[in-house]
Design brief:
six-stranded mixed beta sheet
């Protein structure tokens, strides 16, 4: 398939391009930008007048729920949601059932994703067997099977000896460890940010020090081992200040934030809205403002959707009993655009797109997220001006729960191209 995308505003943050330019695709790759190559005859011409032509989005945390949780979501439904959201590459955590701690399971997941012929799926392997925090997995075999890093998902390793060994091993072989900083005991069983609101609602709290104590411990272990660590879904101003200092010190460190935390605070729990039951919990406005500032100054490297589809049986419950999580693949672009809009000029479209394309790809060690000649043709065409209302009926994901239900958001994806084929076309 030879595709000619014409008259669109090409924004490619990786190569500092923001101009009206044509894009030419052949054999699954970008073959030219601007002028057509000699003898190029398009099978398909897309008129992108009024649209932004951007690299396909890269999402650093999307649970596809297979294997084991097909009643919550399936690869088919979630990869279709990714296409509607313009997400062409996604990283999935290892907390499936069974856990992704054996190479055969990873190979099976990658094969089933390939059959869908939609987004590129990059699994994280379990750091410890069964995510139990006791014995290390065979990281070399998991890497050979296609894992791009190792994670404990939401399970904390309580034994710091085990965590130290894991970091030493990963450092020796150049693997990246993906961890969400959370103390194993402080805040255990908590469902909301520790503060006046949780006290008033009678909800068990998760204090900020659950995050900061874990960060202090982790940074000491990083200094001792030289390991490369990606911190997942930072939630607090205090945590971000520690990360800022650690980056200045030169630790091999990157971090991301969930799109929900860029906008919402614990006040959005309202009257026990279980759609706002998230992990980590929504924190204060001060924390939310610190997250936005950290995105501006580069302390936070990327925004992820933290896509966690949950079914009605586990969500339509009292707040403290509901399962944490929200759908996000179809909202990642719109929520990132909303952040740029609300910055009142501080964040350009190119800067915003960088956090969900090139910068995210760099964190994951992937070569995608750009539209240079020779790159794989993963492209997202979207209309930044058109607005849409978040409604469970319009979401392709099997998970229909999000705290943004009823919100009007900017940005509608018109076409998603994966490896040179049109995987989604809104028309």
């Amino acid at each position: 398939m030879k595709i000619h995308i014409k008259n669109g505003r090409l924004i490619d943050p990786a190569n500092q391009v923001d101009a009206v330019k044509d894009v030419f695709i052949a054999a699954g790759k970008i073959v030219a930008v601007g002028q057509a190559p000699a003898d190029f005859v398009a099978n398909k011409t897309i008129d992108a007048t009024g649209l932004v032509v951007a690299p396909g989005l890269v999402d650093l945390s999307a649970r596809l729920r297979e294997p084991g949780f097909e009643y919550k979501a399936t690869l088919e439904s979630e990869l279709q949601a990714a296409m509607r959201g313009g997400v062409t590459s996604l990283v999935c955590p290892p907390d499936t059932d069974p856990v992704l701690d054996e190479s055969g399971l990873v190979e099976m997941l990658k094969q089933r994703a390939r059959v869908q012929n939609k987004a590129h799926v990059y699994p994280l392997g379990a750091l410890t067997i069964g995510l139990k925090g006791e014995a290390l997995t065979e990281m070399a075999a998991l890497t050979d099977a296609g894992c791009i890093g190792f994670s404990q998902a939401e399970v904390t390793i309580a034994d710091t000896n085990v965590l130290q060994r894991a970091l030493q091993y990963a450092s020796t072989f150049g693997y990246t460890v993906w961890l969400r900083p959370q103390d194993a005991f402080i805040g255990k069983g908590g469902v909301a940010h520790s503060g006046p609101l949780a006290s008033r609602l009678g909800l068990a709290g998760v204090p900020v020090m659950s995050e900061t104590i874990a960060l202090h411990t982790l940074f000491e272990l990083m200094r001792a081992t030289g390991a490369k660590v990606h911190l997942c879904r930072i939630s607090s101003a205090a945590g971000l200040e520690l990360i800022r200092q650690a980056k200045k010190e030169g630790l091999l460190l990157t971090c991301d934030v969930g799109a929900h935390h860029v906008h919402l605070t614990d006040a959005d729990i309202g009257y026990f809205d279980s759609n706002a039951r998230l992990t980590p919990p929504l924190r204060t406005q001060r924390d939310r403002d610190a997250i936005r500032q950290a995105l501006l100054d580069g302390t936070i490297d990327a925004i992820c959707s933290d896509h966690t589809p949950v079914d009605d049986d586990e969500k339509l419950l009292p707040f403290a009993e509901a399962s944490p999580g929200a759908t996000g693949l179809e909202l990642l672009l719109s929520l990132s655009l909303k952040w740029a809009e609300e910055s009142r000029g501080d964040v350009s479209l190119s800067q915003m797109l960088s956090t969900i394309t090139h910068a995210a790809a760099k964190v994951a060690g992937l070569s995608c997220g750009q539209l240079a000649v020779g790159c794989v043709a993963d492209v997202c065409l979207f209309d930044p001006a058109t607005r849409w209302t978040v409604d469970a009926k319009v979401l392709a994901s099997q998970g229909k729960h999000t705290p943004f239900l009823g919100y009007e958001l900017p940005g509608v994806v018109k076409t998603t191209i994966v490896s040179g084929h049109i995987a989604f076309d809104a028309s």
